[in-house]
Design brief:
By secondary structure, the chain is mainly beta. The chain is built from no helices and 10 strands. The chain starts with a strand and ends with a strand.
Length: 119
């Protein structure tokens, strides 16, 4: 059974930075395309960044140039560096594998990590 554990969230002022981490157990992490999703209050969960097994990355327009996704396959870990944070980045952030050719998650969700940006 796959377990996802996200961490690193917190309260930060606008313009600040955070680094989120996700550890994955019970899966073939290294071969999976992975992604970070977020869900803001009253909104649907959205994919904000994805990374292929080989390290190719893609970002939602809203975070392009500010967020950086990376992975360490040896540690089965996924990271998201958040820079130049804005109040609209406030959300619960989740990691997951991505179903090939879609934006849909492959597994169930972890508990997420809350990011709150104060203006």
């Amino acid at each position: 059974q796959v377990q996802l554990v996200e961490s690193g969230g917190g309260l930060v002022q606008a313009g600040g930075s955070l680094r989120l981490s996700c550890t994955v157990s019970g899966s073939f992490f290294g071969i999976r395309p992975m992604a970070w999703y977020r869900q803001a209050p009253g909104k649907q969960r959205e994919l904000v960044a994805r990374i292929s097994s080989s390290g190719s990355t893609n970002y939602a327009d809203s975070v392009k140039g500010r967020f950086t996704i990376s992975r360490d396959n040896a540690k089965s870990a996924l990271y998201l560096q958040l820079n130049s944070l804005k109040s609209e980045d406030t959300a619960v952030y989740y990691c997951n594998a991505v179903q090939y050719g879609t934006e849909s998650p492959l597994w169930g969700w972890g508990q997420g990590t809350q990011v709150t940006v104060s203006s």
